[in-house]
Amino acid sequence: MLNKQLLSPKSIAVIGASNDVSKPGGKILLNLQEHKYKGKLYAVNPRDPEIQGIKTFAKVDELPMIDLAILAIPAKLCPQTVEILAHTKKTKAFIVISAGFSEESEQGAEWERQMVETVKSVGGVLIGPNCIGALTPEYAGVFTSPIPKFDPKGCDFVSGSGATAVFIMESGIPKGLHFANVFSVGNSAQIGVEEVLEYWDKTYDPETSAPVKMLYVESIHNPDKFLWHASSLIRKGCKIAGIKAGSSEAGSRAASSHTGAMTSSDSAVEALFRKAGIVRCYGREELTTVASIFMFEELKGKNMAIITHAGGPAVMLTDALEDGGLRIPRLPDTKVKAALKDKLFPGSSVENPIDFLATGNAEQLGAIIDACENDFDDIDGMAVIFGSPGLQPVTDVYKVLSDKMKTCKKPIYPILPSVINVQKDVAYFISSGNVNFPDEVLLGRALTKVYRTPKPSDENIYLEGVDVAEIRRVVESCENGYMPPEKIHALLKAASIPFAQERVVQSVDEAAEAAKELGFPLVMKVVGPVHKTEVGGVSLNIRDEDMVRKEFARLMKIKGTTAVLMAEQAEGIELFIGASYQDKFGHVMLCGMGGIFVEVFKDVTSGLAPLTFPEAHSMIRNLKAYKIINGYRGMEGVDKDKFAEIIVRLSSMLRFAVEIKEMDLNPLLGKGDRILAVDARIRIEK
Amino acid sequence: MLNKQLLSPKSIAVIGASNDVSKPGGKILLNLQEHKYKGKLYAVNPRDPEIQGIKTFAKVDELPMIDLAILAIPAKLCPQTVEILAHTKKTKAFIVISAGFSEESEQGAEWERQMVETVKSVGGVLIGPNCIGALTPEYAGVFTSPIPKFDPKGCDFVSGSGATAVFIMESGIPKGLHFANVFSVGNSAQIGVEEVLEYWDKTYDPETSAPVKMLYVESIHNPDKFLWHASSLIRKGCKIAGIKAGSSEAGSRAASSHTGAMTSSDSAVEALFRKAGIVRCYGREELTTVASIFMFEELKGKNMAIITHAGGPAVMLTDALEDGGLRIPRLPDTKVKAALKDKLFPGSSVENPIDFLATGNAEQLGAIIDACENDFDDIDGMAVIFGSPGLQPVTDVYKVLSDKMKTCKKPIYPILPSVINVQKDVAYFISSGNVNFPDEVLLGRALTKVYRTPKPSDENIYLEGVDVAEIRRVVESCENGYMPPEKIHALLKAASIPFAQERVVQSVDEAAEAAKELGFPLVMKVVGPVHKTEVGGVSLNIRDEDMVRKEFARLMKIKGTTAVLMAEQAEGIELFIGASYQDKFGHVMLCGMGGIFVEVFKDVTSGLAPLTFPEAHSMIRNLKAYKIINGYRGMEGVDKDKFAEIIVRLSSMLRFAVEIKEMDLNPLLGKGDRILAVDARIRIEK
Hints:
Chains A, B: GO terms for molecular function: ATP binding; metal ion binding; transferase activity. Chains A, B: Residues 489-525 form the ATP-grasp domain. The structure is a homodimer. Chain A is α/β, with parallel strands linked by helices. Chain A contains 24 helices and 29 strands. At the A-B interface, helix 5, helix 8, helix 10, helix 11 and helix 16 of A face helix 5, helix 8, helix 10, helix 11 and helix 16 of B.
């Protein structure tokens, strides 16, 4: 985990420092000085005796004891340098800017391993290599610009890509997004995104820690750790927005006809983010917009008031919010509403959007916000649109807006579109600690995305009726490959998954006995003949013992019949549950309606095992076919609690059967609370 | 239509001019002067003898002859002022900035009508009232800022909202979007968006006209005119991007169970834009991004090369493009590729994305672009991502990029994300006439949207086998309300729509005769008994005359049977075609698969009647259920040409039957080229 030498070093040495600030070793020293690092700062350079006015040593051996070393020297020199520092200078923190390691060659990978080994041997930490560095409250240890304004209650940010981290900051800063700590983890040799999350989680203090975390991730090495700390942080009150780039590569993999195999690695990421409660973003603009939204009080409900001095943007925002599931309700016709209308200019509208016209002023804006805050109880949040055609100053309006944003309990999202006309006013507004959303539609979409992201799920594994010992016995008794039917039955029984039961009987009394065990209605089929239907060897809807006896006699007379198979008759809506094991992620569960619903409409939702009941319910609710499952046009639906229970049980079962690489219950037939798996395929790979 | 006095006035008078530039009448005079209007400029103001150094008259009566008058005086004074100018000063063009007309009160609407009448009586034009004015190559006749740089080959823009127009320009200018003419039509008293489109269409000259048009529309008064001129412009080589705000209000209307009634007014807009070939946008950022894309050569195919010096943004752009249907193909392993790799630094990748590393330089960028332009034939366009971490200057890189953008035949979209680090370089890049897309994902989404927008459809009405005279006879013979079955049959027959035919027969010879007419297979049902199935009164799959005779005899013996109904037996996939008449738009046609596909999955596409074959095919192809219609997993599909023909014929029929307000063919059953309408409902309202 990150240590105090990295976070609050008493001394920093820049190895490979330079007077040329267009070089990383020059720029990083400049940044450290310009942003007022208060500890002792040293430079190492074999040629220059003084660099940027800083005491410079020709060799690392000559340095005094050093807490943090920042290396900007050729890769091949790094391992030895790290070793000297670690072993003779008590250095416990390293940031290796240099590239040319595992990302480039096998030799580089070896150097990287050597450094990690050395660092580990002294209990230190290593950031990088191949990164831009770190920004903390204490120092600006990056070789890039811009250096964002430090704000302990701003945004913590960890990025798997250095350049992308810069571009993300460049997207956030103009919106007014502030940053606390920024870590660029580069090759993640020792410290990756997961370790930074771990540190943030373990040290989280609601009073002092940054309440918002941003992630840019290209690969997740340890999904369990990622999930654990991300969801823990969110449970502690933190909010996390993240990009996991690379969805399309996975998405373009040839779709398999086997539903369980439909889970791409991107669906695993999707499921992981959802389980953790992270808002998944797909671009820099969206990421910084969501992080900016996180700077506000949480929207408690779905009703928004839009307050505007111009019609168009309010209409577009209404479209975007309603489209994403938020609501712009009509305001109730009360005295308050009438009184508010009186305070506005003629022609203003106090419906919702509240349009107080191009001539609307600061005082009116204050009155509208107050009414929404105090009087319109249904309203959960506000969006205020106020630009300028370039005539009147807007300073007083932005002042009122800024004040109200700080005092109101309901969140107020400002949309100040006139980034040219009132550039200075917008800049002042931002410099007062506010964020701005210049485009209402981008805000609207991000806001609905935040609103729709579920809370992290809890960690309990549901084990009622799940016989773990028996599950292990069955799995261990299986060979690699597809499990035989009897093993599948045994396995599903151990997890209390209802499966259409079967009995093969050879006498009429056996048949009557089996019927009692199986219950009615029943299906009876001949055993022996190949084309069962054509020889009249299938009887459906057997409803009583009398019918059992008659049909048994009839069936046994059919040529080639050696016995009769009796099975529970499943009926109702066709459902499926699938799962596939994804390396490191574990089992990704899928559910949906079977057949064309999954194959043509791709109507599938996913979750990461083990699942909780709320998660399973959310998977079911998010199906497009939810209406059908819920009972549609007189057709009886499926008991959703029962369906959810089956999904949860299966996910618990899989947790103890990692040898199961693919599982496919397809179909399950469901009507009311009677849901029966009719067919199942399970593939084992040990 | 717009006249030369409005577009190139020899003289302009600002009525209500002021020395106070925070007032519209002051600011507009300032804009006219600052942006060097070359004609004669006069001011009218009863109090000040000189305003902003301009010759000022106390009353309009004192003015000389005036081409264009811009009114910024109280609404109630406008009608009289217009009258004096029109009748005594030969003024033929008016821009009425003032508000307080039809948008505010009945009195205002009356003043507005008076002005229009006066202006029409002298053959003049009126822009507004309640608008920000107009920007043309000759003058800056708006009271707002910013005044964008004039570029005759930039973007023409017409807006139904003044403030929104300002905000849209403020969104476009920082991207480098240039403008030619801008019209704010306000209340559209005489000149609306349609009339501006008409003018652009009629005067379009590929050599001199602006090749890109942007629209912001809140309501479409004359969809026919809108469609005609927009599609005509696009056929002439123009590109149009538009926002029609207000989709959600319509979207939230209670969904009707009647499919034909599912067409909301927004689906009419959607169908109109698609038919015209306009790229529909949903926000300012998207609109100006699409308009910026229009400034490039058209992307001829779907294969893009991504050229980048940073991995992250390239991955995110790949995701966005692939997600939207464009492709980032692997580059072929050729000598060219090997030679290109040799020119780049070690560690660079010449797969696609082509990553030439953080250290990549201008020369390398040039080589990569040249290879994509000349050697990689599969590549249709390029996106270049180049930001800066703040170390090296990027001037030479941006110079190469700018040069290549001007000389290459394939479009090159620049993504310069470092809007802070290299602010000046980006500004210089833009000032050289280039646009910039700061966010790769927003570009990616807009680019795929442009790529997927179909070309405008042609205007021919398909009339083969559509008996217009008979259609009129049938419609005219109907009362208001739902048409009786025999009328529906007659109507569909007149349009050559295959409908499951029926005959009621009372003798066995009649039955045999009917069978010959109807063809096999047949359905035979008893006429008389209520519960036909329960009494065994329904026979399916009648395949020859012999069976007809036997079944007739059997059915007639069933108690209560008075006759036998014989009908063509339809089978196959369930389809539906619906239509509803939308005020001013005409008939919006819908198609899809029936039942839950439309009701649960909302899998419906729409188009505006009359439809062409390419449009109908596009409607079918865009259904999610297309795979099923196409034949799925051994299940025979439907002949798409036949299905398209039925849709087209119905749309032609409706063109001559505006009295049909709702039509619902549900289901049609289709298998191969045999598609039969089985049930139809048509509602007439004259």
